[in-house]
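pasting for the record
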Amino acid sequence: MPDSRRAPSIRFALLAAFLALGLSACAQTEAAMSPFTETAHADSSTFGRDPSLLVVTTRKSLGDREPFFGPDRGSGLSFAEARLSPPGRGVVAASVGSDWSVVSVGNRTSSDAARAFSEAANGRDVLLFVHGYNETFASAARSAAQLSHALKFQGRTALFTWPSGGKLFDYGYDRESALWSRDGFVQALRALVANPTVGRIHIVAHSMGTFLTLEGLRELRESTDVSARIGAVVFASPDIDIDAFEQTVSRLGPLASRMTLIIDPGDRALAVSARIAGGVARAGTADRERLEKLGVRVADTAGRGWSMLRHDLFLTDSEVTQVVRRAMDRAGV
């Protein structure tokens, strides 16, 4: 019997083919336009001076061999610290416009991983990045580094990485893996909140990672400690059913007022997601007024940037990246 993960319907295959063409064109266009390739210098940011990334993950560990964490689901939550090579240090980029590279992963533990993660962030604000669909561990780590560097974040940068298949046809597997990882995300966030030395906790989630993050926040919505310690919550191109998003956000209480959505009605990746979901619109392409009625802030990026897919402007357009910076500033960085 064929693996159901790798036997998409004809309709899905056609949609995915369109998406693949878009991704290819996107990479070629943004190579020239990315503000991080030539104009940014790694040593101008805290992460550039000390490129150490806290990693909390539900992926299965591959030990000391690259890519360190694979697409399969682990037995539970794990913690590690990754060292990255900054731009311009002689490491060949794995993808154009994102020339950070993971060089090693150490301090691994699956024994009380949430606590180990929390203690590694002692005394600092935390930027927690949650990646989206079709991401490997390495690509997610590069995005976290790129974002932290662009924001010149002064605390500890962390990545929550869940078992994305890292393949175009694995949308269904990725969505189920994101939901399966909810408990691990909640454990990690609770541990950060429980550590009195940790400062503000800022969460930036992208694409399908916003679905995971929203599910986790819903579980924690009644915790006053969580509401008091979380700073900004930024959802970039949220791949969430708009009806489900409205229903959940309306129950988040004060957490909703910390939330900023980066949307674009022309996001082609979310258009494909909507087709796969039976035509239900995604929050990342929803009407701005509809979203603002929920009490969240909205940044509409229509007309900005040169990306064909328009799905990752928070990383590839410097002005859109500043939307994240302003959200953190409002939260009291």
